[in-house]
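Give me the 3D structure for Aquaporin.
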Amino acid sequence: GNKYTSIWIYMVAPILGAILGALSYNMIRLTDKPVREITQTGSFLKSQGPSRS
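Predicted structure for Aquaporin (53 residues):
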């Protein structure tokens, strides 16, 4: 018959991945800068759009 001996990895991996992803996201986003300063530093991406020659 069918034996599902290794099915636990398919059950545990998505949950563990979501938890680790959320923790790493929070660690990366932990900064002393205010949100206003973060958005200003990211504005250089908008200025380097397709108008660059």
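DSSP finds three helices and no strands in the chain. Let me know if you want a second pass.
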